[in-house]
Amino acid sequence: MADTDHRTSDRMTSDRRTTDRRTTDRRTTDLTKAASPAPVPTVICDAVDIVYRVNGTGAGRGAATAALNRMLRRKQPERAAGVRTVHAVRNVSFTAHRGEAIGLIGTNGSGKSTLLKAVAGLLPVERGRIYTDGQPSLLGVNAALMKDLTGERNVHLGGLAMGMSREEVRERHQQIVDFSGINEKGDFLTLPMRTYSSGMAARLRFSIAAAKDHDVLLVDEALATGDRSFQKRSERRIRELRAHAGTVFLVSHSNKSIRDTCDRVLWLERGELRMDGPTDEVLAAYEEFTGGPDRAGKAPAKRK
Ligand SMILES: Nc1ncnc2c1ncn2[C@@H]1O[C@H](COP(=O)(O)OP(=O)(O)OP(=O)(O)O)[C@@H](O)[C@H]1O
To answer: Which DSSP category does 248 fall into?
Structure first.
């Protein structure tokens, strides 16, 4: 398993974002002044590279020996010190605008989740810059839920963690519960979350995050976990979030979810941005690349 230094990452990222946000604010203001209907940028990725460093890969050595080895060989190349690098994102540039819903697609391991985490400020970039206007919220991370607490308690704490006031959490409690559909099959809300299926837990996380309007909402595969009626509710909510001037990023392997929700798609392959354009165009090229539409959602034009 990978072992990255999160404290360093967070600090570096927060330093970076403090500087970057100022720059974005300036750019945003300039753009707004130039022409009123001009799209307002919310996320700018400028030639971004992201590299993971995995410690403890000294062949056949235990973790303690590998750590000692790293200390002793600090000046030697990373490889010799038992550190392997994974270059997950390469030279990716794009600008997202307010009101856009952008799908992120690509085959397994192509760098989608990594890019999303970096936009959320949870991973440092190796090269390039990421500028964000407003606070990006990565669904499932910001609303970190505790499995030993009841669903009810998690709605409360998750809401606070997402930046809602106590008042707002109280007001939206029922709405969150109804949206999640957790109680449709019995009184699950008063049970600890460890008794939930992974789909139920994902639904609750999405429902808490979606109860708030976000500047930039980053959704990683959440829609794939729910049943069809939950997916429909989620898609409707994503459209509403866009209407409230936010920007939504959606990582999904379901081309149907992407087609139903997004008007623009970024296609990553081996960490590189292979295509950026209107959903239909990019999905058509991607489906040709992967050998056809996915099982979850065939392209309407191709259905008999
Ligand atoms: N914490 C980590 N440490 C080291 N390497 C990692 C880490 N997380 C991801 N990677 C590597 O980075 C690359 C991109 O992974 P990422 O999870 O971003 O891909 P993805 O497109 O989201 O994949 P999937 O569709 O399977 O979820 C992969 O080669 C993966 O092995």
So the answer is: E
